[in-house]
UniProtKB/TrEMBL annotation:
Organism: Caulobacter ginsengisoli
Name of protein: L-threonine dehydratase catabolic TdcB
Keywords noted in UniProt: Lyase, Nucleotide-binding, Pyridoxal phosphate
Enzyme Commission no: 4.3.1.17, 4.3.1.19
Keyword Zinc: no
Source organism, top-level taxon: Bacteria
Described purpose of this protein according to its UniProt entry: TdcB also dehydrates serine to yield pyruvate via analogous enamine/imine intermediates. Catalyzes the anaerobic formation of alpha-ketobutyrate and ammonia from threonine in a two-step reaction. The first step involved a dehydration of threonine and a production of enamine intermediates (aminocrotonate), which tautomerizes to its imine form (iminobutyrate). Both intermediates are unstable and short-lived. The second step is the nonenzymatic hydrolysis of the enamine/imine intermediates to form 2-ketobutyrate and free ammonia. In the low water environment of the cell, the second step is accelerated by RidA.
Similarity comment text for this entry: Belongs to the serine/threonine dehydratase family.
Length: 400
């Protein structure tokens, strides 16, 4: 059993008119930041805000009449679930989805809104998968695997057909790896069309499933990653056999790079990415020497991120860039102290966000006062200018 370019081209014909042909655009600013020539494929513009509906729809369209009537079941942390639920409703196929308990609320609700029966079971994807297999046998349903299925892989591979049709001289494709369905389809199509193109896998460092299998070791996978869409403890057997010969390398990504990728896509491209959706850009940020000067196609795989988490990521990036800082100032407890400090910050264009005043801390003199002041600045240099001015006025600050 293997995957071919003909399978992917046939999938593209089935999907035509049923999904968005998402744009691929050159990003001048991301290119300047990363040193690569960056082209972004906006799969977050699909109706369900993720590429997963390509594979799900291709699988649904290949079901027999009897299978369609009985319905399908899947285990999914979100995007596969939404794609399957949405297109199942369109085609009149009953859909049941089993999700692990940690699935973001937004993905659970969207899946239900598309008409699927959602069952929450287990702590991890593997737990949810086990429960789905039990229900499949009990109800006579067809299981639609989120990645280890040739029809699903063929659907995902249509992304590469579109990318190379519009930008045929792409040199490198860094592709997120969870279970391996996306990279199996993309690598098969891309290398069949352009044998000299380089394919890099992008994995969360917390879930190095593909990397571990390459090295012949048991993966040490676990933890709360922001890239939950690719947080899979075990890569698919079929996907691994297809992908392994096609890969240049697999790059492990730490959490700050996912966060920075999300923030850059929001601030530069004015678009929303979930953690896994920013993995390709995160790879360019984490390993710039691997991509510098190369024409890189990045697949923004999805934009289903909880709004509270998105707000947290964007705020944390301000802190990381020292545009949002908390300074501690200890001075004499006399009238006008806070006014003077505020005046110095204001004179230099800083914006005070929050002030905490503490007279009772034992490391503060009895006749002294301690202030924690959160300020917003333009950048790290601007922050330093404000700190230097406060020091000159006799109020030396330190970071909290």
């Amino acid at each position: 059993m293997t995957l071919t370019l003909d399978d992917i081209k046939a999938a593209a014909q089935r999907l035509e008119g049923h999904i968005e042909r998402t744009p691929i655009r050159h990003s001048r600013t991301l290119s300047e930041i990363t040193g690569a020539e960056v082209w972004v494929k906006f799969e977050n513009l699909q109706f369900t805000a993720a590429y997963k509906e390509r594979g799900a729809l291709n699988k649904l369209m290949l079901l027999s009449d009897e299978q369609r009537q009985k319905g399908v079941i899947a285990a999914s942390a979100g995007n596969h679930a939404q794609g399957l639920a949405y297109h199942g409703a369109r085609l009149g196929v009953p859909v049941t989805i089993v999700m692990p308990k940690g699935t973001p609320f937004v993905k659970v609700e969207h899946t239900r809104q598309h008409g699927a029966e959602v069952i929450i079971a287990g702590e991890t994807y593997d737990d949810a998968y086990g429960h789905a297999m039990v229900l499949m046998a009990e109800r006579g349903l067809t299981f639609v695997h989120p990645f280890d299925d040739l029809d699903v892989m063929a659907g995902q591979g249509t992304i590469a057909l579109e990318m190379l049709e519009e930008v045929p001289d792409l040199e490198v494709l860094p592709v997120p790896i969870g279970g391996g369905g996306l990279i199996a389809g993309v690598a098969t199509a891309a290398l069949a069309l352009k044998p000299n193109i380089k394919i890099f896998g992008c994995e969360p460092a917390m879930y190095p499933s593909f990397t571990a299998r390459m090295r012949g070791v048991i993966p040490n996978a676990g933890g709360q990653t922001i890239a939950e869409g690719i947080a899979v403890k075990q890569v698919g057997n079929l996907t691994y056999s297809i992908v392994r010969p096609l890969l240049e390398d697999v790059l492990l990504l730490d959490e700050p790079y996912f966060e920075r990728g999300i923030s850059l896509l929001a601030n530069v491209e004015k678009t929303i990415a979930e953690g896994a959706g920013a993995a390709s850009l995160a790879a360019l940020l984490a390993y710039p020497e691997r991509f510098r000067g190369k024409k890189c196609g990045l697949i923004l795989t999805g934009g289903n991120i909880d709004t509270r988490l998105l707000a947290s990521v964007l705020t944390r990036e301000l802190v990381r860039a020292q545009r949002l800082v908390s300074l501690r100032i200890i001075g004499d407890d006399r009238p006008g102290l806070l006014a003077t400090v505020s005046m110095v910050i204001g004179e230099h264009g800083g914006n005070i966000i929050e002030v905490a005043h503490n007279r009772l801390a034992l490391d503060v003199p009895a006749k002294g006062a301690e202030f924690d002041i959160m300020i917003e600045t333009r950048d790290a240099q601007h922050t330093q200018e404000i700190m230097d001015s406060l020091r000159e006025r006799g109020y030396p600050p330190r970071f909290v």
